[in-house]
Amino acid sequence: MKRGSALILTLFMCAVLLIAGSAMLAARAGTYRGVKAVSLATTARELAMAGLEETRVRLVHDYNFPPQAAEDQPDYQVVEEVLAPDGVEVAGYYVVRLEVSHKYDPYRFIEVESLGLVGNLTEPRARRLLRATFDLRGDAASNPTYFRWLRIVDEGSL
């Protein structure tokens, strides 16, 4: 009788350990999914920031940017592809929209919206929207600083 009870107790302990191990592995899988989601969201934010910086550089160096549009079209939009560090694979895209209706006096600012997309353009795995206001006036110093960001607002993931 003692031999039989030891065998049953051993089988019961193995079953408990198997269930506990499976639960720990399932919890770990959820953690890995969360880490991947955070990584994709961070990449999308950096793509959106790249769009804002590209816009700032274009505004500083190209007087004709954004191109003149019809008066009834106050927006300008551009989509850029960003390559991964290997130079072959596409890391994502950024879509920049400029609202230029306040470009001239007395306002002299441009509203910029940059959307970072990780993955393909039609079905991204992550997206992040940044809205910014770009000053065209400069400050009151004797050597003014032109073309600076007045504010950048992170609208978060969509």
Q: What does the overall shape look like?
A: elongated
Q: What structural class do you assign from the helix and strand content?
A: alpha+beta
Q: Which sheet architecture does the biggest sheet show?
A: 5 strands, antiparallel
User: Reading side by side through the largest sheet, how are the strands ordered?
Assistant: 1-2-3-4-5
Order of helices and strands: HEEEEE
Which ranges are low-confidence, i.e. pLDDT below 50, for 5 or more consecutive residues?
A: none
Count every helix, treating DSSP H or I runs of 4 or more residues as helices.
Answer: 1
Could you tell me how far the N terminus lies from the C terminus, measured between alpha carbons in angstroms? 65 Å
Helix content: 25-40%
- Tell how many strands the DSSP assignment holds: 5
Report the β-strand fraction as a percent range.
Answer: 25-35%
Rg on CA atoms, Å: 27 Å
What oligomeric state do these chains adopt? single chain
Mean pLDDT: 86
Task: List the domain count as a whole number.
Answer: 1
Give the topology:
Blueprint: H1 2-61, E1 75-83, E2 90-99, E3 109-119, E4 124-135, E5 148-157
Antiparallel strand pairs: 1-2, 2-3, 3-4, 4-5
Describe, in plain words, how this protein is organized in 3D.
The chain has one domain. The mean pLDDT is 86. The longest helix has 60 residues, at 2-61. It is elongated, with a radius of gyration of 27 Å. It is of the alpha+beta class and 158 residues long. Strands 1-2-3-4-5 form a 5-stranded antiparallel sheet. Helix content is 38%, strand content 33%. The protein has 1 helix and 5 strands, in the order H-E-E-E-E-E. Strand 1 and strand 2 (90-99) form a beta hairpin.
